[in-house]
Amino acid sequence: MEIQRLHLRFTALSGLLFLALACSDTSTCVDCEADDVDPSKVIDPRGLGDGTGYPAESWTRAPSPEALGWSLKRLQDVEETAASVRSDAFMVVDRGISVWEYGQVSKNYVVQSCRKSFLSALYGIFVHDGTIDLGLTLEELGIDDLPPSLTLEEKQATLETLIMARSGVYHEAAAESQSMKDARPPRGSHAPGTYWYYNNWDFNVLGTVFIQLTHEDIFESLYNRFAVPLQMQEFQPSNGWYYYQEMSEHPAYHFDMSARDMARFGLLFLREGRWRDQQIVPSDWVARSTTAYSDTGSTLDYGYLWWVGNPADWGGHALYAALGGSGQAIFVVPDLEVTITHKVDYDTWRGDWGDVYDLVRQILYAKVL
Q: Which three-class secondary structure state does DSSP give residue 239?
């Protein structure tokens, strides 16, 4: 099941009400400072681990949440919320230090549509070195699909329009949710580049083109370019699989990943694509891909396969996110230097995106100093 956005408008209103009641500014919450945080005992995180703010083979943990300016009581409240909707894992990382871990953070769960943000990062590497040109059209790439085949106009869509979900190609695609099928515009109703629609056809074809142009398997590339240098603890190429369905020749590219490995990827983007002394994803691509180009009519707009938050909906924080299914997520909050990952098991999960967004707002509210 792919990402569903039915609860976004309700979430925006409920989240804003929560923040208004709690605190008008979660980044400088002086007037509502939590009683369990003593400012004189807050420490510099550069004194933890090896001082770089990056994890080694395992994550460096804060001696206590309060030591990095987090309210223990408020984080415990977050745990109660997570338990009530049966979240399976979430992890909070502050300036590269693990502040809070809940549930099975080492267990691999399918990432669902978070896969798209990972692919965007791979694209950035190969756009930078000239292997991939985002200006190439589907016609130039020889891309088509099963009957009803693409029209000549549809074949004028460029890779950039696909990575923005603005191709104008509304062919059936693998791994579509029912809500995506219901929202799909009629074929030929919008010219390439003129209309945003969360389109699995675009996303799946980007996988096909990646393999075609780089001659690399997606899961091997994720492993070699991210898992190895970031010292991910669980991810292996065998975690991934291609998912074909009869309506299209272009498969979805699914994989499993743990909350703590996803947190490393989030930290990579927080650090503008740099991991220790290595620039893994070009910094200009990080900025480019996490810029909003399309108004989706919700609390999150869309960049290059990343969701981009409106600060007014997130307590003043200009965050961005990789989102999948109804609960797999990586949130990056640059002004707080915080990353949050969230994982669910669909057999037991009771929540929806409204619950995830409220959980993230509640976590941000726990950051006091």
A: helix
Which DSSP category does 161 fall into?
H
Q: Would you call 316 exposed, middle or buried from its count of C-beta atoms within 10 A (0-12, 13-18, 19+)?
A: middle
Contact 115, 243 (CB under 8 A): no
Identical fold, 8-110+262-365 and 114-252: yes
DSSP, res 320? E
Please give the model's pTM, rounded to 2 decimal places: 0.91
Domain at 114-252: CATH code: 3.40.710.10
For 49-63, the pLDDT digits (tens) are 999 999 999 999 999
The CA distance from 304 to 196, in Å, is 12
Residue 33 pLDDT level (bands cut at 50, 70, 90):
low
For residue 22, what pLDDT is reported?
A: 40
**What count of Cα atoms within 13 Å lies in the side-chain half-sphere of residue 364?**
34
Chain centroid to CA 4: 14
Phi, psi of 222 (to 5 degrees): -60, -40
Round to whole Å and give the CA distance between 265 and 230: 8
**Residue 201 to residue 204: CA distance in whole angstroms:** 5
Domain 8-110+262-365 architecture: 3-Layer(aba) Sandwich (3.40)
Q: Do the Cβ atoms of 204 and 174 come closer than 8 Å?
A: yes
Domain spans in the chain, listed from the N-terminal domain onward: 8-110+262-365, 114-252
Contact call for residues 281 and 124 (beta carbons, < 8 A) = yes
Q: How far is residue 79's CA from residue 338's CA, in Å, rounded to a whole number?
A: 18
Q: What is the DSSP letter of 226?
A: I
Query: How does pLDDT run across 144-186, given as a tens digit for each residue?
Result: 999 999 999 999 999 999 999 999 999 999 999 999 999 999 9
Six-digit token pair at 272?
Answer: 């503008």
